[in-house]
Amino acid sequence: MSKRAVLEVIALGVEDAVAAQAGGADRLELVTDMAADGLTPSAATVAGIRRAVDLSLRVMLRLADGFAAGDLDRLVRVAGEVREAGADEFVLGFLDAGGGVDLAAVERVVGVLDGCPWTFHRAIDRAADRDALRKQLDGMPGLDAYLTAGSAGGVDDGLAVLLAEAGRSGEPGYEQQLLVGGGLRLEHVPVLRGAGVDAFHIGGAVRPGGWGEPVSVEAVAGWRAAVDGG
């Protein structure tokens, strides 16, 4: 438990980013439009946040609600725009109509990231076979984390899956960091930490006033203490 756990906070703008850093976050996930579960922010937003904080920033690459890749040509253009704005870490994930990983779409987008680190997001929680998805993506350049609640329904429903996957760390397809988020609550943290999970992702949990209000420094600090075992 000596290793400091990663605390990643969703930021919608500069105010969120500054508050998250002040509260002790290690990394930000940059998105817009949480009504659609998080889409790619503008290049201007990315640039503004990059100037305001010195945390690692992971930028969502997703143009519409759902897990289909959609317009790949446009997505590739957008990826280039946010890279020019200072983004060098990303979040993405695409499924096909049958719930399998859309490998062609993932490869197309990853191909323009030039090895930048990226997270495969909660599309894994909607996959028909999450083990198969992991193994298909094994060795994909830059992939270093899976953001998952273990279930589409959230951590309460997926806790057993998360604990099982944590126990497989290091196996083929399971070398990436398990980044737990999606209905995560403070009471889940000690159980997950005890199983070796060392990365946590939060959004609404640090916005006491809801998504219409900014991140709370105090709430982030409370999560910082919890994931550090305090």
From TrEMBL:
Record SUPFAM superfamilies: CutC-like
Gene3D superfamilies named in the record: Copper homeostasis (CutC) domain (3.20.20.380)
Gene Ontology MF terms: copper ion binding
Taxonomic superkingdom: Bacteria
Record-linked InterPro entries: CutC-like, CutC-like_dom_sf
Annotated family: Belongs to the CutC family.
Listed name of the protein: Copper homeostasis protein cutC homolog
Species this protein is from: Streptomyces caelestis
